[in-house]
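Dear Dr. L.,

I hope this message finds you well. Following up on our conversation about the binding site, I have prepared a predicted three-dimensional model of the protein together with nicotinamide-adenine-dinucleotide. For your records, I am including the exact sequence and ligand specification that went into the calculation, followed by the structure tokens. Please feel free to forward this to your student if that is useful.
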Amino acid sequence: MSAVLVTGGAGYIGSHVCKALADSGLTPVCYDTLEKGHRWAVRWGPLEHGDIGDGQRLDEAFGRHRPRAIVHLAGYIEVGESVREPERYLHNNATKTAALIDAAMRHGVEAFVFSSTCAVYGLPQSELLSESHAIAPMSPYAESKARVETALGKASSSGLRAASLRYFNAAGADAGGEIGEAHQPETHLLPLAVDAALGLAPPLTLLGTDYPTADGSCVRDFIHVSDLADAHVRALHWLRKQPASGLHEAFNLGSGSGFSVREAIAETARIGGRPVPHRVGPRRPGDSPRLVGDIGKSRRELGWRPTRDLAAQIEDTLRWRMKMPR
Ligand SMILES: NC(=O)c1ccc[n+]([C@@H]2O[C@H](COP(=O)([O-])OP(=O)(O)OC[C@H]3O[C@@H](n4cnc5c(N)ncnc54)[C@H](O)[C@@H]3O)[C@@H](O)[C@H]2O)c1
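The resulting structure of the complex is given below.
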């Protein structure tokens, strides 16, 4: 069975990617510091404890498992924190990824899939963002992702086959109930709304209600984490079919539909059958008013499509938050 190195595989999205890889007959080798991830989330393959910036540890992991592909999800993820600590974000997410790309080249990796973000687009110039939209990061977090995309573009001219998957807002949890979102601190809307509704967390703070949108709150495109995970398996297969001379392609992964933060809160209250206590706070620096993806390219090229809507994402989040380890 062919091994795939999954950096950040102990995290929220990474653990779902590991499950999808295992379901498709591949062996996910989780490579993670466990700084933010969880040992309990590593269930579908071995764990290699290591940092993506550590070339020696990477060589050891490659020597032991001989992965033919990398899915690179490791990184820090909080936009607000990145505004306060830009260098830490640029170092962990971009500078250290250079060491990982070097290792990929040294070990003749056939396919490199990277977790990028729709935040690289910055202020939208159109209703739906396609992959050809200008790159204009509004936060150090988004800047770190844009830098990695540039580095992958350069490495592709030396033969690397790479795909940058620009996720919109990942949400939901595995239907089997074994894994889900468990960030510390949690900054994502659906788990915060669900926890507030269940009385497991204080009232949710709505980050800005004066955006130029229909109800003043930000509009986002929510995509189920298991649909995201499926796209990684498809991207690996797609890359292996591409010319060996190397390439770098970006793909949007969203639902193609936007919901405002207020709409998502109302939907959570409806599905949960109880109100979501919330209050209005100021905008968070680095946030774009509207991020909704054009997913035509991913549909066409990867044969991928989203299968679980916002209601399903909320139902899965509710089920997970009631039983998750805290
Ligand atoms: N969650 C979202 O909605 C979203 C949206 C767009 C992009 N992304 C990207 O997807 C990826 C995964 O996000 P997530 O929500 O699962 O985050 P997460 O924090 O749950 O997982 C990230 C994992 O990376 C590990 N890690 C961090 N730095 C590392 C390093 N230097 N070396 C090795 N391991 C390291 C952490 O320990 C953690 O397990 C991130 O790169 C994130 O930027 C997430």
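In brief: The longest helix spans residues 86-106.

With kind regards,
A. P.
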